[in-house]
Amino acid sequence: MELKKFMTGFCLVVIVMSAISWFAFNQADSLTFRPEINVFLWAAPAFLVWFAEGKGLNKLCGEYLSLKNINWKQSVVILATTAVWFMLIPVLTIYIAGNILGCDSFGHLNIGILDIFGFSGFDASSLSGYIAAVAVDILLSLVVGSVAGLFSVFSEIAWRGFLPKHIRCSRYVLPVAVGVIWTLWDIPTMAFSEFHLAFFSMLLKNVALSYFLIEVVRKCGSIWVSSAAFGIIVTGMFVPVYTVASTYALTAITAFTALSLWGITLLFCRTDRVEKP
């Protein structure tokens, strides 16, 4: 019943916001309403969960936002691994495919501007300076991304809290279902880009990320941790360590990195809490 109510509200919001987006896109100043649309889509999932479950705000926050069940040690390990993994795997992939093998669709490393703030004093053109600058970028991604990611908790309540709780399927099929729903939610934002390319690219990334982020909640016991992990991933994408020449390459690299990290989390991190049948 709760899932049906959620999906009813979900469909209504997507249809209305898509209509508004396509209308705004066809105006002379097509980007005028884009920030408002993004903010609404960022916050609305939490209100849909509140509407669907029909619980008081205190009870809802206690269920999804409580800190008492967090495995802090494991959370720190997973967040640190996320920062390292989402820096090193794209760097190595692009360096091998782009710089060494000359596959232009993968792009190239931006060795000269690796130091994103330009004040570390590292000579990124040398090997030692390159490694030091990568380490600085990983640290910045971990700190800045973890903090920024906490603001995505309004969405994580739905994608990593409510949906995994109410969708009845195996743990290996669940991320696909969540990834599809998560992607459909972003349809209103696709009015400002090439729809088919944006949709299928986002679908692949969201499904892959769902495997990892749902496992993070399962291992760490809180959507706060998955929010921080998501922030680290997004922040890492904006660090100018490399230039990806195509959306397809960026999608493939992100999906591969997320799925490989999911496998590591699945194998090496224990689940402390007892899962509901």
Word description of this protein:
- The protein has 277 residues and is mainly alpha-helical.
- It has one domain.
- The protein contains ten helices and two strands.
- Strands 1-2 form a two-stranded antiparallel ribbon.
- The longest helix has 29 residues, at 72-100.
How are helices and strands ordered from N to C?
A: HHHHEHHHHHEH
* Molecular shape: globular
What class do helices, strands and sheet pairing give?
A: mainly alpha
Pick out the low-confidence regions. Answer: 113-117
**Ends: how far apart?**
18 Å
Rg value:
20 Å
- Average of pLDDT: 84
Please give the domain count. Answer: 1
Determine the strand fraction and express it as a percent band. Answer: under 5%
Major beta sheet, specifics?
2 strands, antiparallel
Largest sheet strand order: 1-2
Give the number of DSSP strands.
Answer: 2
Number of helices: 10
What percent of residues adopt helix (DSSP H or I)?
55-70%
